[in-house]
Amino acid sequence: MRSPFVYLFVVGIIIEEIIRAPHRYRNKMDRRRGAIEEHRIGAVESVLMTLNLWGALLAPILYAFTDWFGFAEYELPAWGGFIGVACLAAAIWLLVRAHADLGRNWSPTLEIVTEHHLVTEGIYGTIRHPIYAAVWLTVIAQALMIDNWFVGLGGLAVYLPVYLTRVPAEEGMMLDRFGDAYRAYMARTGGIIPRSWRRLITTDR
Ligand code: SAH
Questions:
Q1: Among protein residues, the one whose CA lies closest to atom 7 of ligand 1
Q2: Cβ of 113 less than 6 Å from ligand 1
């Protein structure tokens, strides 16, 4: 038996996939109808995304139900697990909000759909990348809830390069498409941390 936090983490990521499922389905239908105007994804990004899926989704499930990762066990303090649960709950909340606000403009890779419009309201009025923020919270929860350095840290290790390559590519695409409107939007929002929070920790007002 694993620690209860391991099973809770698996339940959390299954809930996240259930939240994503109808959006994935709608995007698939859009693709089938030819309603995707632009698609930007490089080979490196595809490989990274596949690794991300393995690191963040399959490895924890295999860890919960097999003994394959016995070589990398370690002890995690219980308080880490509780902080992890809070991160995971925040991630789920952010995912629900972000998908509701982004609606049909969501896509699993970088895409512009027909009649794509720039969303600047709801959670997108505060941060530009709430879904990516939710993934950060999830991989942090993974490190705090899975008492195995390989599987626990695996999510963070594979998400970091995905995040670092994807955000500039996405913002470049949005700037090409929406120009000054996106530039103004960038100026008044934070990336994954609200601008107002940053003002709390730095002094530049
Ligand atoms: N980075 C965002 C969205 C991720 S989904 C987040 O973390 O929540 C990726 C797709 O969302 C991109 O292909 C882009 O077309 C679309 N997108 C990102 N920001 C958007 C916005 N403010 N308005 C409309 N579409 C957006």
A1: 129
A2: no
The CA distances from residue 122 to 76, 152, 194, in Å, are 37, 32, 13
Q: Is the pLDDT of residue 197 over 60?
A: yes
Asked if the model's pLDDT at residue 203 lies above 70, the reply is no
* d(CA 106, ligand 1 centre) in Å: 6
How far apart are alpha carbons 194 and 128 in whole angstroms? Answer: 9
Q: Is 129 in the pocket of ligand 1 (CB under 6 A)?
A: yes
- Taking the CA of residue 120 as reference, the ligand 1 atom at the shortest distance is 22
> Which among 2, 132, 8 is positioned nearest to 73, based on CA atoms?
2
Q: Considering the chain, what is the average pLDDT of its residues?
A: 92
Q: pLDDT by residue (tens digit) across 43-58?
A: 777 888 777 777 778 8
Per-residue confidence (pLDDT) for residue 199, from 0 to 100: 74
The Cα–Cα gap between 74 and 105 comes to 42
Count CB neighbours of 161 within 10 A. 15
169 lines ligand 1 (CB under 6 A): no
